[in-house]
Amino acid sequence: MLSTEAACKGESPMAQVYEEFQQELEGSKAILTALLLNLPKFQQNWQKVEAIFNQRVITLSGEDLEPQAFSRWQSLQTEIHREMKLLSTELRFWQLRSQGHNWEKRREKAIARLDTIIALTKCNLMSKMNN
Question: Which of 42, 65, 122, 129 could bridge 69 with an S-S bond, Cβ 3.0-4.6 Å?
């Protein structure tokens, strides 16, 4: 449902979903990049990110987009989905083998994937705002 604040700004429900998703992704990145990683806090936040993605982002249809914008949106949506799966797999491996040098490498990979997903989400937001 579109909030009053979003309605006043002229934001669409789709833009609102992407903004919420992006905020949670950035929260995950902040926890992951902290000097002293709070793994339980990160796992809790990541579960929220996955829930938003699975329940709200992936279910978006793009039906209110112009035909020329739909193709780009669909490509970005597919790429976000792909990166989310890769990151989830990376996180599972990281949790299983979180020791020494490999731990830091996996953390860096996870941060890089988060950056990619955040950038793709911003692209979708920007193209949605411009339509």
Answer: 65
Question: Contact, 114 vs 87, CB < 8 A?
Answer: yes
Output 44-47 pairs: Cβ under 8 A, ≥24 positions apart: 46/91
Question: Are the beta carbons of 46 and 95 closer than 8 angstroms?
Answer: no
Give the pLDDT band of residue 130 (cuts 50, 70, 90): low
| Ranges of H-type helices in the chain | 4-9, 13-33, 39-52, 67-96, 100-129
The torsion defined by the Cα of 118, 81, 28 and 14, in degrees rounded to 10, comes to: 60
Q: Which two tokens stand for residue 128?
A: 């949605």
